[in-house]
Specification:
It is built from ten helices and 15 strands. It has 315 residues and is an alpha/beta fold. The chain has a domain at 4-180 and 215-228: Metallo-beta-lactamase, Chain A (4-Layer Sandwich), CATH 3.60.15.10. The N and C termini lie far apart (51 Å). It binds zinc ion.
């Protein structure tokens, strides 16, 4: 039984049981005259997604768009598999990511390098998508799904250079992918998301500030669920990034940069207690996700500011 909720008018959230973990990955169905999925999930979630769509009463054959917020495999990796059941569908993606859906080899090897081969096993097969079925979009582009539902794409770099946020006009909500944060257990656990190899702190901060100007009424997170505390969440995302930044700056000033990963992981792990009620989610976030984002955060300083970061000053 797929966990499904109608989270706003004509918008359904499916728990895609990402990596077989409950309440970690959200896929959304926008059920208008023309129907769109936001995120495909990885191939290992494809069956759950198809079942979920059917139980909402929508035929997979009627899906017009699979929109991916970015091309990381947990968001887009299953699109090629889903297309087999969705003969009408186009995959909509940031123009910087489009090529990698057609030729996924580099995307797959980059994920293996950043996260290890186990990550590829968790995501499953990545089926290349025919060029004609990929529609690349840029900042400001729109797609009309019905008279009342127009989607507007917002360039949202930081987490990844190929990230988009999507504003939907019917409910004035915002699909943020991984651009803002990970919000788990109904916001009880709220973490920034800084993956290697391309996390950029400055761009992420600028993206969050840009999203503040949108004045959306809801955020639809990809990890996980919906929040109506938009302003509060966006400010919290900036504050949390600042906490991570301050820890790195302090380590550099103290000459302890070599051990900063442990400090970053420890401060975040202390906030995970509310996840204990979902043991697989706790285990994944504590033992796989946090070391990953600590590595991504640190890589930003090493690359942007020059290793070994001795000249980095606060400000
Ligand atoms: Zn991502």
């Amino acid at each position: 039984m797929v966990d499904i909720n109608e989270v706003a008018e004509n918008i359904f959230m499916l728990d895609d049981q990402l990596y077989s973990i409950p309440k970690w990955g959200s896929v959304y169905l926008i059920n208008e005259k023309r129907k769109a999925l936001v995120e495909s999930g990885p191939a290992t979630s494809a069956e759950v997604v198809i079942d979920g769509i059917r139980s909402i009463g929508v035929m997979a054959e009627d899906i017009a768009y699979i929109i991916v917020t970015h091309i990381h495999l947990d968001h887009a990796g299953g699109a090629g598999v889903l297309l087999r059941d969705m003969p009408q569908a186009q995959v909509v993606v940031h123009h910087k990511g489009a090529r990698h859906l057609v030729y996924p080899e580099k995307l797959v090897s980059s994920m293996a390098k950043a996260q290890g081969k186990e990550a590829l096993v968790r995501c499953g097969e990545v089926v290349p998508i025919e060029q004609e079925r990929v529609q690349s979009v840029s900042d400001g582009d729109t797609i009309r799904l019905s008279d009342k539902q127009v989607l507007r794409f917002i360039d949202a770099p930081g987490h990844a250079p190929h990230e988009l946020c999507i504003y939907e006009s019917r409910n004035q909500g915002l699909f943020t992918g991984d651009a803002v944060a990970v919000s788990l257990s109904e916001g009880e656990v709220f973490l920034p998301f800084q993956p290697p190899p391309n996390f950029d702190l400055e761009q992420n901060n600028n993206t969050i500030k840009k999203l503040m100007e949108v004045k959306a009424k809801a955020i639809y997170y990809s990890h996980f669920g919906v929040s109506n505390k938009v302003e509060e969440d966006l400010q919290l995302a900036l504050d949390k990034l600042q906490v991570w930044h301050d820890i790195v700056i302090q380590a550099i000033n103290e000459g302890t940069f070599d051990s900063v990963a442990e400090k970053l992981i420890a401060q975040a792990r202390a906030e995970l207690e509310p996840l204990r009620k979902i043991e697989p989610l706790y285990d994944y976030v504590a033992n796989i996700h946090l070391p990953l984002v600590a590595a991504g955060h640190i890589k930003y300083y090493q690359e942007k500011r020059g290793s070994p970061c001795n000249e980095l000053e606060e400000g």
